[in-house]
């Protein structure tokens, strides 16, 4: 039972790190649908780096490549005013092609010896993720920087008038969001999977994206959501650890996380939640900031 | 930071970009992606000019790549049209992948149930079924958005993933499994698509649909209503246009078109005539996202989508030659496509702004 | 410094801000400002008056650091300065109160005030800053709930937040953009008092005004009038008259009173009985409104924005559900009939929002006019639009309503405010046969365009249409209407025939001060 929980928590870690990054840039008003692509890039970069130099460099390089593409997304959508969804999708499609070219030749497990240290079978990254979430929560609710970030996401014109540097803030948040997505991907490939296969993210990035929306943009709710979906995902992969001899064929289980996501999306669209959701949503989310 | 004022440049908003300008901008972005790709080619030790010549001569050679170029290109056209209609109402139909899978299921279900039916009848039913299944899946996404206000990008992506597993369920060790356990049984011969000039008849169907859609959007009342909705939902409400119903309608039409591509893809290519292993059918499914890129680049003009889709199809087909004939590393072809995607996306900027020097 | 004269108005003291020779030319050659000289003294209320396009916005943006002038200098306390961004201006002591509020609705008042403040530190010390803000409010006599979310506040309260924000940042001069345009008379009075308090504290105040001319008299000591980018007149307010001000603004004689044509009032077209509806927040917006409109009659609903007029217009147009009550049009119950049905029955709606609602910027003139034609069989042939007929029709109405544009294929986004409204009118009026609902039809328009719109409304009356006019401009309502209904908090305080309506009385009713009848 415990191994199953440990693995679920690792999936939760993947979701949480990527999602908290997306939460940050969405709070500043930038939507990044390319999060799955950033995770892919981080996964590939991390895996290749780990094969050569080990685990810690893998995470660092993963973060850097995520940050790089976060920067590209920023340039395209914040400075060049390309539609944020287009920019994100462009990055995702590019990542699918590039990662296949770059990393598929390394398909297979990591070299021996490159293995994550584990505390009772749980990777320490889980705790790092928790720390990241708490730090993010603190920044957003208690610091001046957090107030500035939120104001940029709600009404960049009002923020500008108060002297907040809108463009700089959006760049910062998008790059950090990218870095976290890259880190999440590196963790996925090096630790959770420990091996490379074609496009290993398998839709996790999109679930992380959906989680940000469910969480009403609040880090603590996001934490809860990640735990739940981490469990659902892991259950879909290895249900026999919970119920031996489970009758449902595997593919139906694999659909579960996605069906669950749609179910939650429907629930939060009901009248009761809609108001709360609309009030929590950063008002300027997805809108390019055009001065004057 | 990156400030245009510091570079003595000025951003000037273009209210509307003309067709001619759009063509020029797309060509420029293609050239850029070719240049960037040349860098990768050089790293891998290949001569870029050599490579490109190989790519296009292969792609357009009637005895070699032309059938595949046309087949894949028109497959992309289906996806593009499936994207254009909903986007005219500003809905992001990124569910073409799932609708394509459902269309596949619809078509194959008919073929397996009625294998001995006369080809004309069987194929017609397969197409109808594929369209209906795709339409249904599109309607589902449309309903989620129109009536339940669920973000359609996330909704579609979820549905795509679910559809992937649906096919998996049927083919891998499932009721449709073939001899090789992870592909499906072959299609009955009566279901194969008749070829006309190197390409299945469904290619011509796609072009026909493009023409119909063009007329529909620009000249029909319904097309006008869709465009009003896409431009301003508030204005649409003020003149009596029912938004939820229209959203469901456009997604249904989009889904139907993407559903048709299911038959076209598998029954139209002699290399398949069945549903292949999951990696393979997923790779094809991933191609449907090109509908988004092509749709945006041709400014939602269904007619312009035809040549552009075929061109991208030629790049897809031709670049396989890099791996096979020139023995370059696996994945270079996909890389090329990835580069084209991102440069197209980046060049969207020029559809909106001109850079002028400041006095 | 300053001294109080007998009227309680303070003569200006030290010159805080001065501009000399300010010039701004936009690409394309449009001269927005031409050699403008101005000075603003502490404790003085110096109003800047001008039409749309006179250069006010440009001037404001330059003073606040949003734009750079092409020529000319700016001096603060005698020292030459350059504002590269609003932050520079703020740090120099210039504050701005915007017409379209630049606040964060989801945040609290306090959060809005302290945002970006250099003294706020890294970790927000709410306690300390709350104390400082409360002190500031006490000094000026401002009353506001610091913990309320801004979206919950009224327009007047939001404006107050902007003022406090600017003062807390150390502003010595406040630029106010159309400060009274959305205030109720009660709020306007409070605002006026706060202006007086601020000027006593030697803050310089610069209100920018377009067309609420009466307010200029109430609030300013000095007036400068801009026209086509130039300063055309400087006056002491006490020496000015409304007519003179308007003429300087426009440059020609302006008719203030349009003669109302004598029209026979005919049959009843619209009957509304006990209508109630909610607003977007789920609170009651209209509470039991009843009235009738007859052929050839203009029924004017006068009120300050936010009292239910928008919702009333929407319910009548079919865009909002009626909770209770009945709407009977030409004898038919249309209470919750869909929009399309009402359009087909001859009801026309001119929405308060022009671009994006009344008209679509990305569409050409033809495509916009099509918005009111697409459901008419005359222009549709088996599901396809008959573009030949549509174009003919469009040419006709565009010329009839004098919409100025290179061709009917021009995109609407290229049109100016007045022209846009003409386009809206050209789309709606010819297709309206019985009832026209005009919702804030002259908002944001300059004097010439306003005149045109009012003339058109009178034309509709002459043609035998019933017109429901919703307006926040009391003079406009009094001028055009046959019967007037002041609206307050979702109820008609009274319904008064125009001949009996007295401006002060109606004005008071709009604030709920008058119990009615």
Share of helical residues of chain B: 55-70%
| Low-confidence runs of chain A | none
Strand content of chain A: under 5%
- Number of structural domains of chain B: 1
Mean residue pLDDT of chain B? 88
**CATH architecture tag of chain B:** Orthogonal Bundle
- Report the β-strand fraction of chain B as a percent range: under 5%
Largest interface (CB within 8 Å) is between:
A-B, 47 and 51 residues
Count of discrete alpha- or pi-helical segments spanning 4 or more residues of chain A: 12
- Residues in helix, % of chain A: over 70%
Largest sheet of chain B: 2 strands, antiparallel
Number of beta strands of chain B: 4
Rg from alpha-carbon coordinates of chain B: 21 Å
CATH secondary-structure class of chain B: Mainly Alpha
Question: Describe it for me?
Answer:
The complex is a heterotrimer of chains A (292), B (359) and C (517). By secondary structure, chain A is mostly helical. Helix content of chain A is 73%, strand content 1%. In chain A, helix 9 runs parallel beside helix 11 (250-268). Chain A starts with a helix and ends in a 12-residue tail after the last helix. The mean pLDDT of chain A is 89. Chain B has 359 residues and is mainly α. Chain B has a single domain, classed as Orthogonal Bundle (ABC transporter involved in vitamin B12 uptake, BtuC). Chain B is built from 15 helices and 4 strands. Chain B has a two-stranded antiparallel sheet with strand order 1-4. In chain B, a hairpin with a 2-residue loop joins strand 2 (195-196) and strand 3 (199-200). In chain B, helix 13 packs antiparallel against helix 14. The longest helix of chain B is centred in the middle third of the chain and has 28 residues, at 119-146. The mean pLDDT of chain B is 88. Chain C is α/β, with parallel strands linked by helices and 517 residues long. In chain C, helix 13 (417-428) packs parallel to helix 14 (447-462). Chain C starts with 14 loop residues before the first strand and ends in a 7-residue tail after the last helix. The interface between A and C is medium-sized, with 22 and 26 residues.
């Amino acid at each position: 039972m415990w191994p199953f929980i440990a693995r679920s928590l690792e999936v939760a870690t993947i979701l949480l790190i990527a999602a908290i990054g997306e939460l940050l840039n969405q709070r500043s008003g930038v939507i990044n649908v390319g999060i799955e692509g950033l995770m892919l890039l981080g996964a590939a970069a991390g895996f290749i780096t780990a094969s050569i130099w080990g685990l810690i460099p893998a995470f660092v390089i993963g973060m850097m490549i995520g940050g790089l593409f976060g920067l590209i997304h920023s340039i395209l959508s914040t400075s060049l005013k390309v539609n944020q969804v287009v920019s994100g999708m462009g990055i995702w499609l590019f990542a699918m092609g590039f990662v296949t070219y770059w990393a598929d030749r390394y398909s297979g497990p990591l070299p021996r010896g490159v293995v994550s240290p584990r505390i009772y079978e749980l990777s320490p990254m889980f705790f790092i993720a928790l720390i990241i979430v708490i730090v993010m929560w603190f920044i957003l609710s208690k610091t001046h920087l957090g107030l500035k970030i939120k104001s940029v996401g709600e009404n960049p014109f009002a923020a500008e008038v108060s002297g907040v540097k809108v463009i700089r803030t959006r760049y910062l948040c998008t790059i950090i969001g990218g870095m976290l997505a890259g880190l999440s991907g590196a963790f996925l490939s090096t630790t959770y999977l420990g091996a490379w296969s074609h496009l290993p993210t398998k839709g996790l990035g999109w679930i992380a994206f959906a989680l940000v929306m469910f969480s009403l943009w609040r880090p603590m709710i996001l934490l809860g959501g990640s735990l739940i979906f981490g469990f659902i995902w892991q259950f879909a992969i290895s249900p026999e650890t919970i119920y031996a001899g489970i009758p449902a064929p595997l593919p139906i289980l694999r659909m579960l996380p996605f069906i669950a996501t749609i179910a939650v999306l429907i629930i939060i669209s009901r009248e009761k939640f809609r108001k709360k959701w609309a009030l929590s949503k950063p008002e300027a989310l997805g809108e390019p900031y055009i001065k004057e | 930071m990156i400030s245009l004022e510091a570079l003595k440049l000025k951003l000037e908003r273009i209210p509307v970009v003309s067709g001619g300008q759009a063509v020029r901008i797309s060509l420029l972005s293609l050239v850029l992606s070719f240049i960037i790709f040349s860098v990768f080619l050089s790293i891998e030790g290949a001569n870029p000019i050599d490579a490109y010549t190989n790519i296009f001569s292969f792609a357009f050679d009637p005895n070699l790549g032309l059938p595949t170029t046309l087949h894949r290109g028109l497959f992309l056209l289906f996806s593009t049209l499936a994207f254009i209609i909903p986007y005219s109402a500003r809905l992001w139909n990124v569910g073409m992948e799932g609708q394509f899978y459902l269309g596949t299921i619809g078509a194959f279900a008919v073929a397996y149930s009625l294998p001995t039916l006369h080809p004309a009848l069987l194929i017609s039913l397969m197409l109808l079924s594929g369209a209906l299944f795709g339409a249904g899946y599109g309607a589902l996404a449309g309903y989620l958005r129109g009536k339940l206000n669920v973000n359609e990008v996330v909704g579609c992506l979820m549905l795509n993933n679910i559809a992937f597993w649906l096919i998996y369920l049927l083919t891998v060790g499932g009721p449709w499994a073939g001899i090789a356990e992870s592909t499906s049984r072959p299609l009955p011969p009566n279901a194969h698509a008749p070829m006309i000039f190197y390409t299945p008849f469904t290619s011509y169907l796609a072009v026909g649909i493009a023409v119909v859609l063009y007329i529909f959007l620009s000249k029909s009342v319904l097309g006008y209503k869709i465009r009003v909705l896409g431009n301003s939902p508030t204005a649409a409400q003020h003149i009596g246009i029912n938004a939820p119903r229209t959203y469901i309608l456009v997604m249904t039409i989009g889904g139907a078109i993407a559903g048709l591509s299911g038959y076209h893809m598998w029954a139209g290519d002699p290399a398949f005539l069945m549903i292949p292993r999951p990696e393979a059918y997923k790779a094809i499914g991933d191609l449907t996202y090109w509908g988004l890129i092509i749709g945006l680049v041709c400014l939602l003009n269904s007619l312009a989508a035809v040549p552009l889709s075929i061109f991208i199809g030629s790049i897809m087909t031709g670049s396989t030659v890099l791996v096979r004939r020139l023995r370059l590393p696996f994945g270079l072809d996909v890389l090329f496509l990835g580069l084209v995607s991102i440069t197209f996306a980046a060049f969207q900027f020029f559809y909106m702004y001109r850079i002028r020097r400041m006095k | 410094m300053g001294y109080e004269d007998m009227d309680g108005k303070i003569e200006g003291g030290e010159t805080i801000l001065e501009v000399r020779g300010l010039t701004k030319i936009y690409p394309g050659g449009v001269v927005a400002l031409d050699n403008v000289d101005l000075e603003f003294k502490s404790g003085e209320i110096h109003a800047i008056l001008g039409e749309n396009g006179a250069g006010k916005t440009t001037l404001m943006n330059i003073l606040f650091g949003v734009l750079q002038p092409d020529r000319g200098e700016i001096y603060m306390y005698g020292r030459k300065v350059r504002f590269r961004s609003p932050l520079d201006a703020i740090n120099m002591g210039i504050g701005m109160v915007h017409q379209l509020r630049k606040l964060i609705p989801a945040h609290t008042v306090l959060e809005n005030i302290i945002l970006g403040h250099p003294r706020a530190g890294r970790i927000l010390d709410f306690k300390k800053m709350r104390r400082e803000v409360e002190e500031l409010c006490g000094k000026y006599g401002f009353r506001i709930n610091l913990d309320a979310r801004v979206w919950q506040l009224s327009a007047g309260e939001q404006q107050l937040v902007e003022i406090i924000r600017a003062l807390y940042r150390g502003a010595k001069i406040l630029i106010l953009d159309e400060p009274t345009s959305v205030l109720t008379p009660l709020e306007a009075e409070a605002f006026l008092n706060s202006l007086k308090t601020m000027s006593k504290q030697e803050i310089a105040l610069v209100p920018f005004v377009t067309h609420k001319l009466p307010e200029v008299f109430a609030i300013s000591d000095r007036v400068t009038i801009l026209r086509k980018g130039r300063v055309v007149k400087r006056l002491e307010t006490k020496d000015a008259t409304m007519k003179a001000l308007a003429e300087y603004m426009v440059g020609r004689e302006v008719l203030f009173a349009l003669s109302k044509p004598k029209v026979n009032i005919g049959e009843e077209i619209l009957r509304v009985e006990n209508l109630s509806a909610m607003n977007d927040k789920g609170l009651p917006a209209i509470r039991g409104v009843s009235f009738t409109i007859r052929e050839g009659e203009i029924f004017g609903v006068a009120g300050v924005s936010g009292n239910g007029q928008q919702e009333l217009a929407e319910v009548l147009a079919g865009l909002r559900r009626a909770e209770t009550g009945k709407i009977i049009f030409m004898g038919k119950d249309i209470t919750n009939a869909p929009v399309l049905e009402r359009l087909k029955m001859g009801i026309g709606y001119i929405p308060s929002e022009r671009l994006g609602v009344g008209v679509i910027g990305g569409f050409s003139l033809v495509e916009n006019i099509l918005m009111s034609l697409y459901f008419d069989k005359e222009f549709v042939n088996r599901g396809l639009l008959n573009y030949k007929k549509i174009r003919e029709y469009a040419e006709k109405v565009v010329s009839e309503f004098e919409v100025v544009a290179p061709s009917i294929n021009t995109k609407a986004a290229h049109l100016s405010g007045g022209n846009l409204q003409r386009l809206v009118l050209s789309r709606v009026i010819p297709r309206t046969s019985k009832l026209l609902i005009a919702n804030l039809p002259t908002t944001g328009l300059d004097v010439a365009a306003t005149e045109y719109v009012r003339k058109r409304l009178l034309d509709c009356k002459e043609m035998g249409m019933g017109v429901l006019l919703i307006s926040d401009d009391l003079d406009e309502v009094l001028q055009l209407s046959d019967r007037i209904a002041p609206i307050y908090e979702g109820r008609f305080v009274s319904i008064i025939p125009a001949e009996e309506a007295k401006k002060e009385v109606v004005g008071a009713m709009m604030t709920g001060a008058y119990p009615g009848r």
